[in-house]
């Protein structure tokens, strides 16, 4: 009996060792992302739909004998992703610049919960991804008209920061307005019901509401000239123990970024299908020459913007201490890019500008600062326009309904819907687009001219 018991114990021990060996060859990775925050799509929605990360992990498994299991978790904001990372339940996450700072600050309080900022996803160097919109019939024409009014914003978000900074620049303090702390969807609903007078939010809410004729753009964040961006964070302890998983994620993100640059329309349609956002809105931000520049390197202006943003978050109690130098970590990107990283990190050009031949003006499109695009009904490819005048000419002679027309603001370059822009006819007869009436009037204060309607601008271009 004693011998039998010894044999049984040995067998159970061997079985346990075998089970442990099997489990040690299984590696889980949980990704937190925000499907509707569409300048994170190369590390979220688009990357997931393309399957690049899973494919790379399969190849990694062939080399190291492990089995990798990916779980994608979708959230509406960055805050719950940070909470789950602190709890050790999300390994890699993507979020906006303000949530990134909060993530770094909160996780640095915990020894094993620290995170590292390892890559960018999408950015706008002037800050145009954050905007303030009002109802279409609102009497407000400038930010100054919001004094004493109710403004919906998500406290601690980049949209909130832009709204407060913009108001302070014209002498209006947070005490002079009534900030309503609301999720974007709640604020959008409140705007439509007139429960609030304005909404200060991040991509893609302003474009979505304006496109649907549910709002009018009052303030373009590019007026701040402060970069706004989104990035990728990883739990330090996970990255240390699964270094190859993190580098393969960044390689897959780079693959997805290349795909978006090479197939901007197809990428926009994939994201629209996954998020239920209008394709025209997704393409406004993510298309060729879009409002969002997609690139992974952690560029100096982006890190400098974090340094500028941090004091605001401290002032409202959202962050305590943050060692930004310890938080930012480009080691993984340097491994992925190799010697090319130093060149990539110094470039500020959009890797995917509008190019091609402009059929309306019969000329090549060469200047990204003036280039636009026309998307006609029933077509899945856009027509490039070299200048705003060429775009208007193309619309006037389209011969079929216009699905969307995109044009850059004459002063800031912010890409916007041509039919939602404010158009100015200058003294020489040139027609210039601006995202806001405030921007148009600022131009008119220095140059003779007059505001004209979009319909009138198109008619004059026939």
Question: What's the SSE blueprint?
Answer:
Elements: H1 2-24, E1 26-33, H2 45-50, H3 52-64, E2 67-74, H4 79-86, E3 92-96, H5 97-107, E4 115-124, E5 130-134, E6 150-153, H6 158-169, E7 178-181, H7 184-193, E8 198-202, H8 205-211, E9 216-220, E10 228-235, H9 236-241, H10 243-262, H11 264-275, H12 279-286, E11 293-294, H13 300-315, H14 324-327, H15 331-337, H16 341-346, E12 357-358, E13 363-364, E14 372-376, E15 383-385, H17 388-396, E16 402-408, E17 415-417, E18 422-426, E19 431-434, H18 437-446, E20 449-452, H19 454-460
Parallel strand pairs: 1-2, 1-3, 6-7, 6-8
Antiparallel strand pairs: 3-10, 4-10, 4-11, 5-8, 5-9, 12-13, 14-15, 14-16, 16-17, 18-19, 18-20
Helix pairs in contact: 3-10, 4-5, 5-13, 10-11, 10-15, 11-12
Overview of the molecule:
- By secondary structure, this protein is α+β, with helices and mostly antiparallel strands.
- The protein folds into three domains: 2-125 and 228-346, 3-Layer(aba) Sandwich (D-Maltodextrin-Binding Protein, domain 2); 130-224, D-Maltodextrin-Binding Protein, domain 2; 357-460, no CATH class.
- 42% of the residues lie in helices and 21% in strands.
- The chain contains 19 helices and 20 strands.
- The protein has helices spanning 2-24, 45-50, 52-64, 79-86, 97-107, 158-169, 184-193, 205-211, 236-241, 243-262, 264-275, 279-286, 300-315, 324-327, 331-337, 341-346, 388-396, 437-446, 454-460; strands at residues 26-33, 67-74, 92-96, 115-124, 130-134, 150-153, 178-181, 198-202, 216-220, 228-235, 293-294, 357-358, 363-364, 372-376, 383-385, 402-408, 415-417, 422-426, 431-434, 449-452.
- Keywords: Signal.
- Pfam families: NMT1.
